[in-house]
Design brief:
The chain is of the alpha/beta class. The chain has a single domain, classed as Metallo-dependent phosphatases (Purple Acid Phosphatase, chain A, domain 2). The protein is built from 9 helices and 13 strands. It has a 7-stranded mixed beta sheet. Strands 5-6-7-8-10-9 form a 6-stranded mixed beta sheet.
Length: 293
């Protein structure tokens, strides 16, 4: 089985990135994967569906998890708040365009003995909350307002819902736990796909020692609870894939190989996995030409 995985397409932000996405789709048409997975940050607002439209030409199975940009809303957004976008609007668009919305349940592939579980994932500050008091006396206020030394996290402006970061993280992790149990009951092996990094070794690397903004970004990137789920299902999870950071990384956690897909606003990156061999091939797409690495 051939599985293609990409992330952070950010349709509509950068013309070079959009051209790179079109090249990526041309490549998929040529290579004909059995399954395509998008690991979030597909397009904010109307650009989410505009991006999904591009993949209608593919005949393979398709699945995705949304990213934080995909649930951004404005104060007068006709789609509702970020929770309504996440739980209602995006699943409807996925159904319209033939994508399995992994945040609502795993994709089971009986012929391959495989299930794909996924989540947007979220952050509860647990990756750095123990160190922040050493670096800033106002660390609690910085977490509440998502304020860095320079600038502010855009989630503070555009994610609007009746949750705290901690309460939403707890909700999505609880749901992922159910989905992993469901997947494990139906397939021998699983893939886990997240938008926010599934474990800290897939996050954007920091300097040693880190500076305050790096610790704050780490706080807003993931959580320890998903790591505990990976440990619990380590004998069943074959591979983990994440996005969000725009930084290519590979690492191991609980003896499970993980990959952060990489790619940025101006160029895109695609991983192709041969299953069950778990061999990974990488192609980068830029406005000029794709490069096989």
């Amino acid at each position: 089985m051939k599985i293609a995985i990409t992330a952070d397409l950010h349709w509509g932000i950068n013309p070079a990135g959009d051209e790179s996405t079109r090249k990526l789709i041309d490549h998929l048409l040529y290579t004909s994967p059995d399954l395509l997975i998008l690991a979030g940050d597909i397009g904010a607002g109307d650009d989410f569906e505009k991006c999904l439209n591009l993949f209608d030409v593919l005949s393979c199975q398709r699945a995705l998890v949304p990213g934080n940009h995909d649930i951004w809303v404005t104060s007068d957004d006709e789609r509702g708040d970020s929770w309504q976008v996440y739980s209602q609007h995006l699943p409807q668009l996925c159904e319209r365009h033939g994508f399995h919305y992994l945040d609502q349940g795993p994709l089971v592939l009986p012929g391959a003995g495989l299930a794909v579980a996924g989540t947007m994932n979220w952050y509860d500050y647990s990756w750095s909350i123990d160190r922040l008091p050493e670096f800033a006396s106002d660390w609690e206020q910085r977490l509440r307002t998502k304020r860095f030394l320079r600038g502010r996290h855009n989630d503070a402006r555009f994610v609007r819902w009746p949750f705290t970061d901690a309460s939403f993280t707890a909700a999505v992790v609880e749901k992922l736990e159910r989905h992993l149990a469901d997947a494990a009951a139906q397939a021998e092996r699983m893939l886990l796909v997240t938008h926010h990094p599934a474990f800290e070794g897939l996050n954007y690397p920091s300097t040693v020692p880190p500076h305050l903004d790096q610790l704050l970004w780490r706080a807003f990137s993931g959580n320890r609870s998903v790591e505990k789920l990976i440990e619990r299902y380590a004998d069943r999870i074959g591979m983990v894939f994440s996005g969000h950071t725009h930084k290519e990384r590979s690492n191991m956690f609980a003896n499970v190989p993980g990959y952060n897909i990489g790619g940025d606003y101006g160029w895109k990156r695609l991983l192709t996995v041969s299953w069950p061999e778990m061999a990974v091939e990488t192609v980068e797409f830029r406005a000029e030409s794709p490069n096989l690495t």
